[in-house]
Amino acid sequence: MADVQIMNPLDAVYAKWQQKSTVNGARVPTSKAYNHVAEEGRKAWKVRFKELPPQPERRTRKSRNTRKPCAMPTTPLTATLGNFKRAPGLKPSYNLYMRPMTGRCCTCMPISRDTFAPEGTLGRPEKTNVLRLPHISCQHSTLLSLFSNIAYTYRHTVRFGYPNITESVVRSHRTQLAVERTVQECLEIQGVPLDEKSKEYKKEKKKCEGKLKKMFQLMRAVMSIPIFKLTGWFLNTVLGYLLHSIQVQNSQLSSLKDASLSGKPVIYLPMHRSHLDYVLITYILWHYGIRAPYVAAGDNLNIFGFGQILRSLGGFFIRRRFDKEEGKKDHLYRAVLSEYVQELLKHGQSLEFFIEGGRSRSGKAYYPKAGLLAIVVNWVLESRNDTDGILRNDALIVPVSISYEKIMDGNFTREQMGMPKKPESFWATVKAIWKLFSTTFGNIRVDFSQPFSLKEYLTVNKGALQSTVRRADSPIAIPGMPSVRDSMQDLQALGQSEAMLPRTESDNSIYGIDMRKDDEKVVIGGLAKHIIYNGMQSAAVMSTNVIAFDLLNKHRSGVCLVDLIQSVDTLRETILNSNRDLGFVGKSRDIIAHACRLLGPKLVSLDKDGAEATWCDLYDEENRNIRLTPNLSLPHILELSYYSSPVLTVFQMKSLIACSVCAATGVTLLDGSSLDRYSATSFTKESVLEYAVYLADVMKYEYLFTAPCKDFETELDETFESLISQELFTTLGVEDTYNEEAEQWTSNIVRRTMYGFDTDDMDDFASPEKEYKLNPDEKELFRSLTSVLQPMIESYWVTCCQLEPLLTTDQPFTTLSKSIHEKLISRVEQGVTSYPESVAQDMVRNALHSLSDLGVTEYYDIANEKMASITDEYNSAGRLNELISRIDSYKSD
């Protein structure tokens, strides 16, 4: 009986084995059955990843007679281990691009993050060259096959309607209130009593109404489908000649198409780098059949010919400054602009505007401006139902990053050297376009970040909007919140909350309501910083960015091609491991040659055995002794610094820590003879993080170090730990670590754990601060990290030094700025500074703004002139010298 009980399970096992070894009911040998299962697995792999799986290497067993003794390594073991620890982890070739999609929505908005997540976000990102026209069937027309560009443009139809909202804007309640208020102010200036039946009143009102209509006619866009098609054909032809490619990710465009079909207006917010940005987004969306947005453009672009084209493509022109007179609000213009934008939103139209305001002159993101974004936020807030507290309106925010290998607008060195900007004109534009055809501009990469709901942002941040501490029942504070939602309908439940913002109706505010100043800063500032940070992190790094960064931060004195190839290989892996994408592929040698061709000999000089070389020589693998040297003279280094800026955001947090170590310890890298002092310097994490928080606050106009919803000190702590894992920092030796104090601390903790203790007594048994020191083997890595922020530190330090004249008398802001810039240039000419790029005008401007926020300086207006003065707190030589010394402590040389 026992034998039967044992055999029954064995028979089941045998039957299962026999079933596995059969194919279509026929028994096959075990090896063939294995091959069948493996074949099915290969097919499944190919369906999922669009390629065959990597084949394992076949290992052949060698006879014992052919075995040879293992050869000892010729490279020292310490050097090999150091290389292993410094270099990022290697990835298999088939897994190199298996990374998450860039531009994912912030985790503080989980509903949007899951709703608009494209399929295959963890798969291989498929990119498309927009300039490569799709195949057009021309079997029955030879003429069409010869003119495929024209045929594609003719057949590509635009089926979206664009409403005429002129009457709605001009006759709206808000604009009529603005007219009434303007008439009242004009009559008060004239000394005429307010009487609606008087001739003066009627005359002034008619004048204001005519002015209002003229404002709107100069502002509004006029969408023209024929102009869309003509511009599409023109850009297909011209950009195909000037560029190698315009790269987009298919998954991102798929998400955009879903967002545009949701019925909510889509707000595109690109990072502004070139005048081409105005039409590039529209051009891409036209290709993919997505509704083109209305684009906000500065009125300086409303020039003859080009202004009409931009207006027909959806461009509406706004002033750089809403108020013509300082200190006097233009109620008419504010009301017209606010009503126009909100009417477009009511009709479900998409918008595009540049949150930075103007084109970046430094390649870094500008501090965001809140004008048009505030109108969109107010449109959502005004829709809150007073009964149930639900926000009825919603808009989808899409940060966009545009990465250029070479900027078509030329360079901004003239403005960065303190010279005035040349105004746009018709002939200047024609001349600039003509120059474009004499060169090539490489590739452009456009990344559309994942759309997120403005309603969700306002809801999950309601604690901040109410200027109170976030409640425990806030959606973002719920532990273990489900990350997957069925649809955006969940936002209605989130919107049921108390009054989002105290507000009153107004006609003189650009928002249509008067918000408290603190609330306005919290709402718009936090949202704008989210957008800027998302755009920075989703921007692809191009070939010119990598080469410029490597030369400026590691090889300022020049580098051999072989060493540069190794350095670029490491840098590429580091960028990919930092969750950033590259806008290029291929061997590093070819990438260097391509980038040097685009940068030109004025920025990077090539030398081969004392003779001048060309970028063509870099492709030849036999040329191993070519030397590349960056041009560090003004103004060329400013252009090279512009191209290196996108890579700086990858290392900004690590550089912040490295410079703070210099401040906490006083260590410098001026000469190589101080290696003993360098390695003997010790510091604690707490002291370094304290210096880092201060430096980040000083440089808030240069970089956005982390997303607003993240805890900055936590991010700093994680960065510090990552540098420990890289062995840039090491703990003190065993004999120093396990000292008597640490042993006593461990003994007390053990006793308390065994016999019980209260949490209030934990402070008495706090762990002793761990001390770290700099690893002398990683001195070059430390030097390269500190060099990322050193140009800004140099510029801010000189700015603080030049505040001394303000101790005796106030100065015009322009005079102060000019004196700082001249001092920076003189230091470069005298060879005092190692960072000539510190003369950039943007850094001086940001430093003055930062000092004002820190309470060091203040500005006021006298007779339409901006004056600068020093505050009472710093109105002494001793107090000012403390500030100068504190900034100086972050310098590494």
Roughly how many Å apart are the termini?
89 Å
Alpha carbon gyration radius: 32 Å
- Content of β-strand: 5-15%
List the uncertain runs: 30-34, 57-97, 464-516, 734-738
Provide structural commentary.
This protein has 893 residues and is an alpha+beta fold. The chain has 34 helices and 23 strands. The strands form 6 sheets. Strands 3, 4, 5, 6, 7, 8, 9, 10 and 11 form a 9-stranded mixed beta sheet that branches. A 4-stranded antiparallel beta sheet has the order 14-17-15-16. Helix 8 packs antiparallel against helix 14 (331-346). It starts with a helix and ends in a 5-residue tail after the last helix.
Short descriptors:
9-stranded mixed sheet, 48% helix, 893 residues, 23 strands, 10% strand, 4-stranded antiparallel sheet, 34 helices, globular, alpha+beta, single chain
Task: Describe, in short, the structure shown.
With 893 residues, the chain is α+β, with helices and mostly antiparallel strands. It is 48% helix and 10% strand. The longest helix has 30 residues, at 636-665.
